Amino acid sequence: MKPAVAALCLLFLSFLRSAYSGEQKLFTSIISFGDSYADTGNLVRWEDPVLESVNLRNPPYGETFFGHPSGRATDGRIVLDFIADALGLPLVPPVLAKGQNFSTGVNFAVAGAPALNLTYLEGQNITVEIPINISLNDQLGWFEKLKPSLCSDKTPGSSDCFRESLFIMGQFGGNEYLNILVNSNMTLEQARLIHHGAKYIVVADIIPVGCMPVILATHPSPGTADYDRYGCLKSFNAGLSRHQNALLRRRVEALRERYPHAKIAFAEHYRPVVAFLHDPGRFGFNSSRTLVSCCGGGGPYNENSKALCGNPGATACADPSKAIHWDGAHLTESAYSYIAQGWLHGPYADPPILHLVN
């Protein structure tokens, strides 16, 4: 091989290696919103007497990856963590973490966050599990207050502050369902981000609520016809999750038409969870315990409101990687890793995150 040709080949291989390793980043920062499926430590840092006994502060949360509770509602990492790693970025710090540098990202998500405001929910006589102001609207308000510091190195008034940022709007609405309410306020909030200069946005749907161990344990049905082939409650999945997700998808399509300059990906929790249930062995999950929490206080679904994961009386399974569900309302790190791959490469994001930037 001629020296010139060899040099060109080496240069090309070096380019491929650097691109694959993440040295040439698609995004320079991640800005995240959401509930417990996206929270990386805000709830446990929230200073309020009502939250003193939050079980996320206790083992075995965090045992798989961090070796200690990290504020995430799982045994290890969540989807957001895997996405940050794949993009060559640090784990996204919670906004309430003191002394953090938010130049490569910031997370506003809080476990238990509803899409609708606390005042509205209470006005409807709906009992809110975590009665603090952490709704989607509140989180966007925190973002707007922090925006000047996030854009401090940009030209004042510049509209391209977030041109290389990935915005991830995690699932919202699941907490309303647990409080008997359907979310209907997403479109305005997504547009609000676009007005602040967001160009790349990921909008996530919600999981099949009827497959959550906490729902299965608290809403048992005497009729076998009420359950689908996987053992999930049909009414919760069809009447709540699929309905919400269909509405959300239509709103995302409307936003794409209204703001063609923004690149919006519709990401899914629902379909991958169904895939886990359909063929658990393919993903390394225990096929006999697909609807059983890894961590809980006993019962057919290992879900007991008197012995929640992290509290006395609850125990965790020996190998969380073989479980789909972690604590009755959340998934395991293993499940989140597969979902993240589906968001990054497809087929569980439209378009996949790695294809957002052409």
Describe this structure in words.
The structure is a single chain. 44% of the residues are buried. The longest helix has 25 residues. Strand 1, helix 2 and strand 2 form a beta-alpha-beta unit. Helix 2 crosses helix 10 and helix 6 packs parallel to helix 8. The protein is globular. With 358 residues, the protein is of the alpha/beta class. The strands form two sheets. The protein has a six-stranded mixed sheet with strand order 2-1-3-4-5-8. A two-stranded antiparallel sheet has the order 6-7. The N terminus is likely disordered. The protein is built from ten helices and eight strands.
Write a short abstract of this structure.
With 358 residues, the protein is α/β, with parallel strands linked by helices. The protein has ten helices and eight strands.
Structure annotation, total helices: 10
Low-pLDDT runs = 1-22, 174-186
Alpha-carbon Rg, integer: 21 Å
The proportion of residues in beta strands is 5-15%
**What percent of the residues sit in helical stretches (DSSP H or I)?**
25-40%
Strand order of the largest sheet: 2-1-3-4-5-8
Count the beta strands: 8
In angstroms, what separates the terminal alpha carbons? 34 Å
Topology pattern, helix = H, strand = E: HEHEHHEHHEHHEHEEHE
**Class derived from helix and strand content:** alpha/beta
The overall pLDDT average reads: 85
**Tertiary shape:** globular
Which quaternary structure do these chains form? single chain
Protein name: GDSL esterase/lipase
Organism: Urochloa decumbens
InterPro entries: GDSL (IPR001087), SGNH_hydro_sf (IPR036514), SGNH_plant_lipase-like (IPR035669)
Keywords: Glycoprotein, Hydrolase, Signal
